[in-house]
Sequence to fold (316 residues):
Amino acid sequence: MGAALGIVSDDLERVEDILIKGATGATSFLTASTTYLMRAGGKRLRPALMVLAAHLGSGADLDVCKTAAAIEMTHLATLYHDDVIDEADLRRGVPSANEKWGNTVAILAGDYLFARSSSIAAEVGGEVPTVLADAIAEVVQGQVRELESAYDVRRSAEQYFATIREKTASLIEASTRLGASLAGCSPEHVKALRQFGAAFGFAFQLADDLLDLAASEEELGKPPGTDLRDGVYTLPVIYALEADPRIEACIGSPDPDVETVRAGVLESGAFEHTLALAEEHMRRALSMLEGSPECPARDSLERLTRLIVDRVPAFE
Fold:
């Protein structure tokens, strides 16, 4: 991913400075908790997509960098809250905030980041606060939708798609939309970049769900099969259940038979089916860039899009 971001490295450093400054609280303890996941690493995917989209127009000025920081801060806030909901003890290869300080601190840290992201968005003004607020509402709605189907072996593909549209794709769509809009792109170009972000988000989540089954703990920063333990039945599991209902006996509780489910996903063809769908969304995302000018930013966006599927390891 790093090679694709070389042309916006200065912009991303600026975003990082805004992030750290924005998350800094009135006490050292608050700052330690609110910057904890920032300092733990992360791909900064949403800011990267936003500043690259801006470079298809007039470029990434201060407002673009501020908005990119607000979107990343929003994403980080959801991670704090997700880890509390999921009772996770690891995030990005380090103890989660709730494991380190308890649920109360993790929730308050997430709340603080939501508030600061809203404040930064208000500084930029225009459509930014509304777009960000709408995206936050969609993310929360997706989280609730996911909770409603926790440990439900009858979860449908349609329910899954609605969840990832809200929980993952909405914030990525907002990133590319606002990057293009703030950089003065035409309404048609903004629409195309918005559709690019939505398709990118779908492909990204599908690939992530495959990684949870196929990647190692070192690659994931958490044990594989975490979604199964949390009762989140993703598309490859849904497809495997449709092909072999006997898999139902291996799930439905916080103590699933992960290895048997993984074998079922492989043997049923559900892994390949899901990967093919991720590739389909990847191609749709690439098609949305066809009207963009030929430039290094477009090349980088295309490379990042192809990396979505390339990072899924062989599963055997």
